[in-house]
User: Fold this.
Amino acid sequence: MSSASEFSGRFAGRTAIVTGAGSGIGRATALRLAREGARVVVADIAADRLEQLAAEFPDLDLHLVAADITGEEGVRAVVAAAGGRVDALANVAGIMDAFLPPAEVDDATWERVFAVNVTAVMRLTRAVLPLMLAAGGGAIVNVSSEASLRASASGVAYTASKHAVNGITRSTAVFYKGNGTRANAVAPGPVATNIEAPFKSEHAAGVLGPIMQTTIPPVASADQLAATITWLLSDDASNVNGVVLPSDGGWSAL
Assistant:
């Protein structure tokens, strides 16, 4: 796997926003962008995680925003921290759904999963697009999931939410492809992160468990996903737009 040092300066002079930056894929993405020269607005609902990140890497240009991005107030705070220019947006924040099937999913789970996984993505995209268009372009990468390509990787809420993320991504790509702005998505398989993914349904465990045991590839690292995300955000991917790119160890090829 290539290291950020190989691409030093790739984001020099650029401002990026990364959500879910307190841990996992978001943290790895924020660090890689900063090491490649970006000024990075790191957003997460957990302030303590952001403070720990900044304390560990005091030499990087990280701007902390502890906010709930499911609401407009949180989105405004994140975008305001960018200082009027956003060259790159990585919508990484996401939550799982306890693998609840359609007959068992509760309203609270459905609404919370869609708020974090879909509405926050839409609101941040909507907020940064005018800045990108005014600047002549920008790049957006949404973290989707293997669950956006199949129905055996999660419960109904998460599966539906990640299909929606793919739709937002492709719609954004189509509407703004002539304005210098690109939108793509990364679809990870299993990744070593802090996201909670317990089975809270015996039925789901009985149906999905055997499938997963025979098909899931080795768990990827957050750094591997960060490498894919930053590539899509960079000019190296200037001809890539509207793509949902699996980064799943070959799971989607099965």
In short: The mean pLDDT is 94. The first strand starts at residue 15 and ends at 19.
